[in-house]
């Protein structure tokens, strides 16, 4: 099993980076692993922590229409260069945490995506430098209020709601180029999305090189690499599960958003 890097909140309320062991114990690190975090010698037992998103990005940069079949289902042709947008860091939420369905939206879609975690400050990378700057890989759901995306013509509101970026459950250092991405709704046995990540139009390295010509990326920043065909709507109560071979499973349930600021 590949090493699994997590971020957790302990039962004492402290935030830690760590390594998840096969017995679910977490070996605590003194810093993010991409900043040379070392083991403190402490361990958390399974009932002594809750899992958080595996990094705390200053920004999430996402790529739209990066699989030809998804571009086609959205009624557009593939872009000539990566089409990027931002999701706010406050949209990030953990595996197992709710996706809150906002009252402003009539259609909220899932988008299963491979996420890249950046390990160091990157600015104006040359082609060939990018691979070494990708510290690891995790799973994301680029949740999108599709009706608001169409209505606004730009994507900040549609993509930016709190909880609209489930991320995790952990980071692995390597992934096979032909890894399969699959998305499942509730207990249905057939996936609604199923694609090999090597069918993306712009590769992770090309996307990273492109983004760093525009903005500096900081350690722990995240890039979402786009979703394959098969996006579709979620309803309150749905369970959405995204699996990427070699990483694991990101699972979240949709809940109605409440107005009493009781969001977790
Ligand atoms: Mg997307």
Please explain how this structure is put together:
- The protein has 264 residues and is mostly beta strands.
- It has 2 domains: 4-51, Roll (SH3 type barrels); 60-256, Fumarylacetoacetase-like, C-terminal domain (Fumarylacetoacetate hydrolase, domain 2).
- The protein is built from 5 helices and 20 strands.
- It has helices at 68-73, 130-133, 146-152, 156-160, 204-212, and strands at 4-10, 15-20, 26-29, 39-44, 49-51, 60-64, 83-87, 92-94, 99-101, 108-110, 112-118, 134-141, 144-145, 165-172, 180-185, 193-196, 222-224, 232-234, 239-244, 248-256.
- The strands form 4 sheets. Strands 7-6-17-11-12-14-8 form a 7-stranded mixed β-sheet. A 5-stranded antiparallel β-sheet has the order 4-3-2-1-5, with no helix packed on it.
- Strand 1 and strand 2 (15-20) form a beta hairpin.
- It is globular, with a radius of gyration of 18 Å.
- The two termini are 31 Å apart.
- The mean pLDDT is 96.
- Magnesium ion binds next to strand 6.
Q: What is the structure about, briefly put?
A:
The protein has helices at 68-73, 130-133, 146-152, 156-160, 204-212; strands at residues 4-10, 15-20, 26-29, 39-44, 49-51, 60-64, 83-87, 92-94, 99-101, 108-110, 112-118, 134-141, 144-145, 165-172, 180-185, 193-196, 222-224, 232-234, 239-244, 248-256. It is mainly beta and 264 residues long.
